[in-house]
Write a structure and sequence with these properties.
Structural class: alpha/beta
Strand content: 15-25%
Radius of gyration: 20 Å
Number of strands: 16
Shape: globular
Order of helices and strands: EEEEHEEEEHHEHEHEHEHEHEHEHE
Amino acid sequence: MVSKCRHEIVGEVQNFKVGDRVGVGSMVGSCNSCDNCADDIENYCPKMIFTYGGKYYDGSVTYGGFSDTMVVDEHFAFGIPKNLPLDAAAPLLCAGITVYSPLSFYGLDMPGLHVGVVGLGGLGHLAVKFVKAMGTKVVISTSPGKQKEALENLGADSVLVSRDQDQLQAANGTFDGFVDTVSGQRPLLPLLGLLKSHGKLVVLGAAEKPFKLPASHLIQGRKLIGGSMIGGMKETQEMIDFKAKHDIKADIEVISMDYVNTAMDRLLKADVKYRFVIDIGNTLKATW
């Protein structure tokens, strides 16, 4: 219930109260009137406002987690369950929903399916955990050096070494879908060959150059290539609750603000497993 009088606005908070554990994801605003907003996919709203580096309707810039304080429409805040540590919960609001949403939308969350995850990094390690929790057989496609990590620490059912041609040949036509989390330039054609008929390849990493792909490889087998970007408010809360229920956490390293430059250097060297969490106020102790 909201009462308005020109520039004075009062109302009741519907979802949260002081002291509740909440989080804010990648966006803090949308138009609330387009078809996408009506369908709970505010992330595809043409007027969506990013949490960091965006602009509010009054022209002010958003600074996200680097702000001293933050005011946000409660519609764009999420409840964080008490059994989910705040430091490990933070990456879920971007990386977590980025992999959860396409698994759900493209029907790759059904028990018994054979799903591959391409790339073992900030997105890929969460994708493996999600797929396992959904009761699906998961195979990680990565480099030989990450094989032990994928099997022993993340729980992948098997590892497909992307450069092993014999292994790729033996796996042709055996996958229901792939979630490709790699951001660099890479060929998609080998992945299409691994898909069954009606298989789906979901691209999450944005390469700088366009992909080159013969249409015949999509026509044969009625295969699909799709994309996805974060998720709407309703789906993100669903993802958080799913994570809490299955005790899924992002693998993180908590750092202080004065370590950020070093962390950026390490990121360039892929020297992180698998997400940095910046403790702006120096109040957290790593829980995971």
